[in-house]
Amino acid sequence: MILTLAIRNLFHDRIRLIVTLVGILFSIVLVAVQLGLYLGARQMIIGMIENAQGELWITAYGAKSFEEGGILLTPRERHAALAAPGVAAVVPLVVSFAEWRKPGGGSTTSVIVGADPEDGGLEPWSLVEGSVAAMAAPDGIAVDRSYLGDLGITGVGDTAQIEQGRVRVRAITDGIRSFTMAPYVFTTLNRARSLLGVPGENTTFFLVQVEPGADVEGLRKDLAARLPGTEILTKAEFRDRSLDQWLFSTGAGVALIGGAILGLLVGTVIVAQTLYSSTKDHLNEFATLRALGSSSGYIHKVILAQAGLSAVIGYVLGMMIALAVVVLSTHTALPIIMTPGLAVSLFLLTLFMCAISAVSAIMKVTKIDPAMVFSR
Prior knowledge:
about 375 residues
């Protein structure tokens, strides 16, 4: 009976129902897009770090992120790290911003990632054309297909110029995007040094691969003692530092989360106003129920059922639109990510939002005097 009353109250005024659903739908889409953008940005920032094969990172002191490694490290640090018990390999990586000069004129900023695939440290993944081995060919590089237009090229075989060096596209990846909007350009270690003018065997990072069974935390302390003037970071620490640099120091993450909170507030206010108005219009009916002996709890359940039905219908409609937006953003520079966990969280948030919205209506019903039925 509770559900029947809730459905009849909800669908009695269809215009009001539409307003309620639009409020919930707007809130769901806004929150889904904002949080999806946050997850997408987060994935772009940590993608390189997560795909690197190594437990520890040796960086210059104060390195802010993967793209901003600071001053260069020298072979001395590498040899010192290799001498530490428990170290299986120390893989050099060269990473830096560089000017990409388009074949047809103009230029843009790119991020050069130099590493030798045979070292097993970091190599392009999700290849759709070419191969990692092809990058070893003269002037070979790999880029992501989402940036082909920005780089002024069309695919494998095209040539361009990075700083003062000529390069040729040998491989294409799919889904390796950069939060800075500067496309990643993969190449071999020595070619990266040549393009960037890095002297000798200097490098940006050393990726430490640990022997099986070794104590990673103990090894980190040992390396910190052997390498003064550098920082030894775990993968998780370097990931968190990069996230802090790009999402929070720049304010981008705060803006995305703030937009999601704003969406929730707007949805809550619209649903609360609608439920309150609906309850006020049906005060006589609720007073009749009270006069017939219905408890306050029973009436409260009817109102909460109305809120729950609104939440379910609004969530379904909102998620349909949100998923369409996610699909449309798949091949853009800033894709929106929707995970099962986020979908479930959004549903729970919608139920919570509508339950909070029902409080004003419940407070109004609580003040009903059953005697008002007999004064009509």
